[in-house]
Amino acid sequence: MEPSKKDWKLFREKIASWQESYMEKLVMEYTVLLNDNLPASSKFWKLEQRIKLDKKKPGVIINLRKQETLFEIIRLINDGAITMDDLSDFSDELRNQVDGFLKKRTHD
């Protein structure tokens, strides 16, 4: 399902700040890992593994195609990069589609 022109424009305007906030959260988590009382080699390899996984998440990299917007928003929510509250400026239709999909997945 493609979003309206307004929702698509809003998504493109917001995605950079959403990603920046998400990556800031990741950096804080990496800092905790690096400050842990473990050998340097353990911290290094844990961090490397974590970055390898995180860099594939939508809060870090995303496919900006209009037809993928709904799917990407759902991925962002599922990964904790955004919440439904972050969609308050979007149309009721888009929010209802996202909410319906998320509720359907929790019941499956």
Key words describing this protein structure:
66% helix, mainly alpha, 108 residues
Q: Which strand-content bin applies to the residues? A: under 5%
Major sheet, described briefly?
A: none
Tell how many strands the DSSP assignment holds.
0
Taking the alpha carbons of the first and last residues, their distance comes to: 21 Å
Computed structural class: mainly alpha
The DSSP helix count reads: 4
Number of domains: 1
- From the alpha carbons, calculate the radius of gyration and give it in angstroms: 16 Å
Shape: elongated
Helix content: 55-70%
Give start-end ranges of low-pLDDT stretches. Answer: none
The helix-strand sequence is: HHHH
Mean pLDDT: 94
Short description:
The chain has 108 residues and is mainly alpha-helical.
Describe the structure.
The chain is mainly alpha-helical. The chain has one domain (5-107). The chain has four helices and no strands. Helix 1 runs antiparallel to helix 2 and helix 3 (69-78) packs across helix 4 (92-107). It is elongated, with a radius of gyration of 16 Å. The relative contact order is 0.16. The model has no long low-confidence stretch (mean pLDDT 94).
